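Researcher: Re-running this chain for the archive, since the previous output was lost when a drive failed. Same request as before.
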Amino acid sequence: MNRPEITDDLMYKLLKTFPFFMRKVFHRFHKQENTGHLTKTQHKAMLLLFFEEEKYMSSLSERLNMEKGSFTAVVEDLVEKNLVVRKQDAQDRRKYNLALTKKGQGFVDREIKKSKAFLDKKMAHLDKNDIKRFARAVNELYEITMKL
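Model: Regenerated structure tokens:
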């Protein structure tokens, strides 16, 4: 099978684009009403809990590129704020499952709505064609990434 080569140029664009995109579009999460101050790591953990299927502490700490001990402190603070619950796995007592509480779910729902409004505002100066191209690119990237 002849696969196209991943060129240096494509790799440079990939490494440059994603951090730039996240900083340019979503760099605005700070103090939240009703939840106290959340760190960027806590915020990312909350979103991961919402989007990820596997909710073991060990899996989530890996996804956040954190040591288990450091991630435990993040989780304990979220539990204290009543945003997350931690339960020991019934099949493997060494593992802990995490879940959003009702308050945590509300927080994530509000954040997604805020993110959508923020992205809408950022993209307001783009024409319809650019917005369609952006949506197509995101959808294609998502589909391909799910295959990796």
